[in-house]
Amino acid sequence: MFPRSEVFELPTIFTNDPVSVNLAMYDLFETELKADYTGLEVLFLSVHAGNAIHMRDSTVRSPSDLIGKKIRTPSRTGAWSIEALGGIPVAMPVPALPQSLQKGVVDGAFVPWEIIPALQLQHQTKFQIEGYNQERIGSLMFQTSMNKAKWDSLPEDIQRAFTDASGPEWGVVIGQKLLQAEKEGITIAIEAGNTHSVLSKEETQRFTDILSSVVDRWIDNVAAKNIDGEALVTKARKAIASHLNDT
Question: Are residues 126 and 56 in contact, defined by beta-carbon separation less than 8 angstroms?
Fold first, then answer.
């Protein structure tokens, strides 16, 4: 539905820093992303802190550990990542995840640490896995927007109140709060006795090598919509890199 914006969900594009990605989306909105939002007034876009791996009964140290595993996916890009790694993507709303884990409908899930306390995932999983330097397998984009006709009907002072509260600095605040929530979430899992594994640089690279195919798949997919995905990937990477010290 928002194919251009989806670039910021892709693995190897989003790695580990929601702040830099939020700012990059702000930078590229007018020139690259706005066409996704016809009929909407977008106040801000944001991403969560990235898809980490949560598993019921077995840990993950290499892509082969996911072969044949049923993994809850948050999005189509998440599904593509799971497929690339040999897993079986299972789409479901996140509130259904605890019961699905308990009943064995899925073997694991791609969700950030922040959701652990809300869903009590420390009781439904035994293993939490992330890459070197907290690298994740892509992310999920969120938008705060308003119907354009409704927006246009608002008095200018009300519009200004919204825009003043939704500039790039808000992307920094959201990203920082999510990073703090990540620390709190994984701490809860560890204190419950779960195993938190951080992959080595070499182990993480094995995932990255495979997941680069997801970016290629996305480029091919959006080409059918007359979107130059390769150019957008390059611009997204550059914009993110320019904000890596802004956290």
Answer: yes
